[in-house]
Amino acid sequence: MTVRGLWIISHENGGNLSIRFSRFVTSNYCHIYANITYFFRIACRSLCFVMSCVSFIRRFSTVEHRAKSLAGSSYVAVPEESTFLQLLLTELGLSDSGKNYVALRDDCLYRPRSPALELHVDGPGKGILWPVLTVSQGPLILACLPLVDVPPDPRPPLASLLSVSQGLTLLAGLQTFLLGSGSKPDSEGLGSRLAMLPSVLLQVCPLGTPLDVPLPGTPATPTAPTSAGTQKQPAWKTGLHRGRAVVNVGLIETVRSMQYGNRSRQDLWDVYGTVTCKCEVEGVLPNVTVTLSLPPNGSPLQDILVHPCVTSLDSSILTASSVDNYDGSAFSGPYKFPFSPPLEPFRLCSYTSEVPVPPILGSYQLKEEENQLRVSVTLKLHESIKNSFEFCNAHLPFFNRDQMGVVDMKLSSGQLDVSKEKNLLVWILGQKFPKSREVTMEGKISFSGPTPGPSDPLCTKLTAYVKLHFKVPDMTLSGCYVDQHSVQVYSSAKPRIVTSRELQSKEYYIWNSTGTAPVSSGQMMM
Amino acid sequence: MAANWAERISAFSRRPSGFLSGTTAEAFLAELLRELRDDRATYSVKILLLSPLCEHSTLLCCSDSVGEETALELMSVFVQCPPKSVQFRCHLLLALTSVLICTSCVKSHSRASLDFLDVLLQIAQDTSDIHTDGRQRPLRATACECLRELEACCPGLLSQRLELLGGLRQQETSRLHQAYAELYTLVLRNAIYQLTQETGAGAEHLKALLGGNTSAAWEADQESDLTSSKDSAILSSLILGPMGTVPTLHTGPDCKELRSVLSTLLDESYLLTPLCQATLLHRLTEVVAMVPGVPPAIFRTHLLRLLGTSEVSLLHATLLLKCAFTDSLFSSEDEAFILKRLVVLSQHPLLSTPEKLFYMDCILHFPENRPISCSDGDETLPVLLTPQLASALVPTVFNDSTTLLARFNMLSLVYLEEGEEGQGGQGLAYLYKHLSSLLSMVENGCSRELIVTFFRAAFLFLYYFCHVERYSNDLTKQLCQLYFHHTKLAPHLINLADQTQDRLSESSWSVGLLKALQRVITEAPLTQLTSHDLSRHLKMLVRVADEGEIIQQSTLTFLSSIITPSSSSLCTGGDWRLGNDILRVCRRLLVHPSLDSLLTPLADVLHLICHYADMEIQDHARLYYTLLTTLSREKLAGVLAQGMEEGGRQVKKQSLSCLMGEGLTSTLTIQQTERAVFRLIEAPPEPRAGDINSNEVETGPGEASALVEAYRDQFSDSSFASEITLQYQLVHINSHDCHFDQLFSIHLHFSLTDHHYEELGDISVPCLLRERPSTIVQLTLKPRKPYPTSLHASAIFTSPDGHTWHTTLPDIHVAFQQTFLPLPVPSSWGRGGTLSVFEGLWDEICSESGDSATSLFCCQLKEAALNTLVEKHFLPFLISDLSHKEEFKVLFFLPPRSHILLKVSSEEDAVHFNIATDNWELLSHINSYLLKVTSLQEDTLS
């Protein structure tokens, strides 16, 4: 239930190295010290411009002490930083990026790698270091080595080590803390948050046993005083709210789709929803209940996952599962979630849903003609969908061809952005489909540009797709909604309650029906 | 200074060994401690200084006593530190914990550790800040965490404080109750474990434990201190799956107290962070597993909340709960539900990839209520995982590579179980289609990562379904096409052939693949061949030639056509690398089992290579040609075999010696021994025969001056008395390397360290056997100046396995007295003659100046001691009669021309050594020599 060490490695492709920290740079090896205490970066093999450096390392000597007595003769010490880094990058397939084949890195022998890697330590402390957990996002690789607290021989399954899931949680928490939950990390904030790590770790993992994950964004401040009542304050609640009670419940549904326009291949789509809450309610342990409701003949919510602050669950809520055959008798709400909220915004629950039709049905046809490509796209908005978008765009990328020359397109609606250097057409449909709820685009493109455009291993020849990006406010596909009046807050003051919902697309593909579309599974999940 | 510390600390933690090679652990530790006591340093720097102590305690405190001292130092820093610097005090507690645990001070209950324990307990109990701003709260939290770590590392340490800790946990209402709860559950778990190890412990012991009445009921337990017990079992998790056994405490059904404690803990677990909840749940699972008196149903009310959670660690703890209690807590419906849940979670769009992969691992190690097999560690599919259920996890091209492979692996297991009929067949078809689409992506030129992923997937497919020939044959065909268009995949394909051959020993798939690849290479038109392709083809052919089953004729035809200038221009450039690649194929063919049928074409090819444009390649081709045409098959195999064994098909060495044949090289090169094998030690002196004292009263040829003249005349021959011969024994150095017990043909070589001697000749010793008496070696030295010296020595010898070795011997030291010779006069001159020469020389030296010198050396010696001294050291050089005790006359002759004359007499106050020498430079040496021998004499007598 403990980790032996923690590493945070920044890994950059390209020469965008944070030189502002540098003290000296030599040709082959760069040792770049941060002027913040504790942190240093090592870049290795700057020759191929893959910069990897350990930004933060923390070892837990008492856990190491336990590891030694638990593992006995099979104990493998944690190697020094540079060795560790090199082994880790090899195992992740990131070393020697200039070389076509490296036996250690590219061996075809299958062994489960992620999430627990094994590092083959050479030299005097020879042995296999396992299980090294890693998560990576953008420029950062975070790694930790959980303590194996069961007999090491034969190697125990990951599932028998509670420290593995705890390690994963810790890493994910640190990742969110360092990079934010958004996809775009800001490198400015990263440095300052790295600098905060020692004091953050003092709170969340002082001696190698993870106690909590750091709160994203907020600096570690001493907790606000609490009234000395008899009710124990939850450890995950950093303070108490004072002031007017406000409860904010947001419901977002995401739809994904793969449409082939081909009889032999079934089109696929799926929907999942998340309910996010921000509750400003007084009291040490206030009670709030949020209820999700479905329209009369809505299909049941499946695969419900709840936040740990939910106090109790009805068993009927959990029964529906997307991997089951649909059972008509399944429970279809209302879904009650009683909980005591933490101070910060959190994801109360998530679900998946089976909906009968995709919101937008498309067809895409390409025909290769002399020196040009004939393009035909049709998009139909389903009648049940509110014809009021925040935005709706269709992206048509073309790969493995020369750059676009003449683009001659006729649109029944919307406007077209042509990005010749990216070989990309963006069809901006705006806020509304026309009354007919159907739009078309037809025309020809010649690829007569002087240089080759972008390439992709999947989209060769006539394998091509249209990718839709859209967002519809105030609607859900499943019909699921949170009624303002169903939100119950058990506190003295009458709270203000705000609810919202929206539908958004993600990975919404319409494949060219005249080309071979890549194999996808019988079930929807990608 | 602060910046300097930041840099130094970071240098230390980056590479502790490197950092400490520039200083010592003690010095660095002392520096750290000094700086920590320094009032001028800021607390942020001081926190930095503590990090090496926290992270590398054992490295800095290399012994328990150092740990103890360090801890005492840190405690005094802690006491002096003002309460308001909370962060620093927290870090100090962490450092103290690390140092005391890692140096085993806690285990041995050292003074510092007991003091520290008291300090921690005091802090943990100090709730005076409850009404203030709570600024000291982090300190209390850290103290609890330190106590927990101490208990975790030394189980049972706090068993006696259980009641106190329970009380603290109950009282606390701030967020700190979590720290107390964690501490309490661990101590409880360890205390109960201790009880299970006690024979006869039962319900009342448990009651006493929880009630804090430890003094009476629990005396005995303290003696069986588990902290000192050798096995680490108590540290391990007790939840081990179907094969694990849990120690139990038999209490009967009456354990109300424990049950109420557990219920409270479980009810309040909701207030803990998910990570701490998971730990607590796991500890409580262990406790309930150890005490059968408490039914597992105690967890039931919490199960729904746990099963619905989105937190990976909470669900994991629930799985461990299932692992521990199986059907006594989970019905078969529950089991089916959990498995479905795991499948859902393994592909849930909102979870991260590592989490999803972890859940897949949990499916493969699913804790079934009634497992069919008890195979530990192996991946087995739960019975309930039907192909229909698993179909949610089929791999797709949109997966990232690790997910793709994990899914590929799991689905292969599923379809393997199903067999080729029905659903399994369809599934298999899907998997193969998926593999093909990966292959076409590789064909279209994808990233390196995807190439590797494809080959891993291909390996997995073959691993499970190699026997399904319609797929494995088709895969061979597709791979050949792939190689034809992408020869850069040669190493991947070779690797695939190697691994399938290793893992699937009964399958001939990899030979089939290699055969097909050989066909692709040899049948392709030469006109389109580039030199890059050729080099990869040749690598592939090397691997093909490793297979005895594959007929090599077409390879030879291919070689002959590329080397023939009329058919291909690729080799006309005489590229050295290309030449080597070709030769490497030839070398494999030389040891191929079907060599007999290859003789003529291979000889032809080698003959062609003899005209290659690179000299070296020509030479080697000629060597191979000669080997092939002159040696019998067996001999040829013998010469080449050794190297083949070493490298086998993995040989990738580029060295010339590799090309030559590794078998020859080790016998032809001289290897260096790691350390000295033998050495030369001075042999004990032989009794000297023919002492000049024997001839008593003969007279010499005349007057003293004439005698001196005659003596001098002898030196007209420059070789006269110019050498000293020293006796040495050649002995093994006492290391037990049996490899060197018998040595032959030892050739000793000496080299000088100064210019005072002529160069020495080499010495040969036929053999040196450990069990036989040592060999005497005579070292003949020819001094230019008779000074003490050192000689370097080395040797070349042969070991019994025929290898030749070079070794260095320890230096040989030649002492000053070893250069002494008796006066070189004809024996016929007798004592009278020599005495005359002595007197003549003495007079000459005393009257002359120039290089001559006289001196006096005095020392305190009894008469008896003097006699012994003379007998022991001077006898061979004594000119006067031994019985003539008033004055001993001694003459040392030192080649080539020097003399030292001594007149030794006992005077009133001391023994006087009157010294006369014709070479004043020797005075210092004779002085130190006399000092040595006389002091030796004094020592032995006193």
Care to give the gist of this entry?
Chain A has six helices and 25 strands. With 526 residues, chain A is mostly beta strands.
Q: Describe it for me?
A:
Chain A: Pfam families: Adap_comp_sub. Chain A: This is AP-5 complex subunit mu-1. Chain A: Belongs to the adaptor complexes medium subunit family. The complex is a heterodimer of chains A (526) and B (942). By secondary structure, chain A is mostly beta strands. Helix content of chain A is 13%, strand content 36%. Chain A has a nine-stranded mixed beta sheet. A five-stranded antiparallel beta sheet of chain A has the order 5-1-8-7-6. The radius of gyration of chain A is 27 Å and the shape is globular. The two termini of chain A are 32 Å apart. The radius of gyration of chain B is 44 Å and the shape is flat. In chain B, helix 4 runs parallel beside helix 7 (86-102), helix 19 (332-346) packs antiparallel against helix 20 and helix 24 packs parallel to helix 26 (490-503). Among the domains of chain B are: 672-684 and 704-818, Sandwich (Immunoglobulin-like); 829-939, TATA-Binding Protein, CATH 3.30.310.10. Chains A and B meet through strand 5, helix 1, helix 3, strand 7 and helix 4 of A and helix 1, helix 2, helix 4, helix 7 and helix 9 of B.
